[in-house]
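Quarterly update from the structural biology core.
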Amino acid sequence: MTSNRNSDSFTILGSRRTVYGSSITLGLILYFGLQALGYPIWGVAALVLGFGVAITLALTSDRPLWDERDDEIHRHAASRTVTLFGWLAALVYPTIVVLDALGLLEFPLWLVPISAFIILFYLVYGGFQLYDRFAASL
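Predicted structure, tokenized:
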């Protein structure tokens, strides 16, 4: 008789979830590490490969990779992440702008694309909230 544990695991690499998480983590570490070492193209290639392995694993799996309990954990983590970055953006960026206006700090140019991304992120988030509220009212 075959156990479910054996059918859900890779003998060398570990479980599907371990391979999924490890491939993303390794891809991110290599992405940042290779960029820091001056190899940005290789960093992007490592990131694409890591995410590619995870996506392929999720799409080719014969059953769901995550269950309802995992979905709830992901939902809570996503909510906390959005809240944390929202508060940080609401506190850090105006503070930097005020300090720049007072001549106490120069607004770093590298923060401009990050602030634009955060604005876009929250516009999309707000758009999805409006859509979901509208869809729920139908």
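The beta strands are 9-10, 14-15.
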